[in-house]
Amino acid sequence: MMKAFFRKALPNSVGHKLRHLRETVAANTLGNVLDGDFYTTSNADIDAASAPPAVHFLAFGRHEGRQPNPFFSKDYVGSYLDQHPLTSEPQSSAYADCDLSGKPRLLFVSHDASRTGAPAIILRLLEIFSKSKMFECFTILDEAGERLHEFKALSHTYVMSRGRHDHQYSDEEASEELARLFRQGGIFRSNAPVCTLLNSAESHRVGRSLARQGIPIVSLIHEVAAYYPPHIFEDIVSFSSKTVFPSRFVSRAADRHCELDMSMTMVRGQGLLEDGFGSLDTAVSRRLLRDSLGVEDDAFIVLCVGTVDIRKGADLFVDTAKLFHDQLPSERPVYFVWCGAADQTFPYPQEFIQRHGLQDRIRLLPSTSEIEQVFCGGDLFFLSARADPFPCVIHEAMACALPVVAFRNGGGAPELIGQECGKIVEMGDLKAAADAIRHYADDPDLCRRQGQAAREKIASDWDYQAYCEDIYEVIRDSAQKPPSGGWPLLPAPSPEPHLVIMRGCQTDLEALKQLALDAADPNRLIVLIDGRFGENVDALTSEFRHHNVRYRLCQPSLDTDHARSQRLAGLLKNPKPGRVTLINTLKYASEDVLRSLAVEKVAVETEDALTTRQLYRWLPVLNSLYMSNATLADALLLLNPNASATVNILPGEP
Fold this sequence. Notes:
Blueprint: H1 2-7, H2 13-29, H3 36-42, H4 53-61, H5 74-80, H6 91-97, E1 105-110, H7 117-132, E2 136-141, H8 148-154, E3 156-159, H9 171-181, E4 195-199, H10 204-212, E5 217-220, H11 230-239, E6 242-245, H12 248-257, E7 265-267, H13 282-293, E8 300-305, H14 314-326, E9 334-339, H15 348-355, E10 362-365, H16 371-377, E11 380-383, H17 392-399, E12 404-407, H18 413-417, E13 422-425, H19 430-442, H20 444-461, H21 464-478, E14 498-502, H22 506-514, E15 524-528, H23 537-546, E16 551-553, H24 561-571, E17 579-583, H25 591-595, E18 600-605, H26 612-618, E19 624-627, H27 630-639, E20 647-649
């Protein structure tokens, strides 16, 4: 039908001029949104000769939800348009009509989206810049990973067709792929990124290609130079406006290993990744960790967190544990616990534990989403790394009031730990490490005193917002020109005093009213988790506006419980709210997510979607559960009579 329409165009010169004018207007309107080549090649039903891409997208494609460019993220558009229901139009259409594509653009580059330190650092920076709504954010990932959905919720995201580990895909081919993204007729032709944040040396080939496009590069390099050929770091510093190292250790290592212009570098370590990390109840966390390990209540637990590999010194960790237990017994039972994914190419730790029969005293646990609870349940952190430039786990351990034992010259951690927050021993001196651990195990006052000093140091000096503001200053200094209107101030995110999360339906609004809460309370924000899929969302938002209720929409791109769960998890962090009420949305919240919130948590269930068994599982992590089904409430109390302080019948229900 589309082809036929364009073939009916007037054959005379007037028709030709009108069509040309329409095409020109369409192209100008969509200059920052539509990549014509991508759009044509991605939609086989479009005949470019009959239907120019811009005209087709305006007339049909955007209303059909077709992707306008290779970066486009539905989740990001939904997050940006948090006052716009999108119930009657796809996100691609809303994106074409809104002001997002006209904002200054920032580009973020990560080697992957895994649950490791470097991607977490760039993702947190992306989160702050994205939520500020001052910029339009784009991300290039060399490879995907578990956290891909988080990148897509905060930016338009492109994953390279073949990653850096594919040796059949040359640097030249990768450069050509990137050049196509920034070609003259693409979405960056009239609004190019003002700057790129390149995260890690692993992304150097992407950075080199972007520099060829004339985009200023700020490189955040977290690796130790000795693990790379010298030309890699030399190349990074040469194509970057500024290279930021996380610690003096990493900076000195790069200077020794390579020929660098150090005037083009600086040292700035990242802050604590998650706001409020370490606020869980320590007594509860200690009990839960010891129960899960099946050890004594007074057990002293030495922690390490990270991939069980040689660089992080997993072998030194188990060797030190054996040396410790070969000596005279401590006054308390001591256990060495490592939490992290195994490196299948490095079986030494597992084989060592098995060979020496240390399965009880040394525990290797898988990585977990409840890592904050693990930290808060430990007593001491032992960083056994040979080369860990400036590990995020040190901030997390110290935020949870754990003193740290670490090796000198194993990375930048000793610069943070100092003399007051732990003990630094010479690299590979396992006896000194074991002696230090015994000292802490036998001296609870020392452990408590240094742990408190560690927590205070992180709270006062290592806030992530401050790190982001410093990086923003580097971006401003590196950009070729400021955005029109100048550089805006970067707002500091502030926690919502009370977050109410519900669906976009009338049932939930009635439940909210039964709670007798003042919906117009300025300290309360109501979030509709269904966003564009809510059956009554337009009516609800109209009522909210009429009564001056603060609200926003959470826009999952898919009509699934999993998509809503991802959205809800993002709402409950950075910064964490002061209080949470879940109205018929408890099923979207994992126990892990709720347990990590050391705030009042109230759930309201007015439907029978959840079984007694499911509700019972959530009870330990809730302060209150309000229900309309008295029979279901009685069944819960029958399972646990002590839950009477938690389970309530919703006011106004029989």
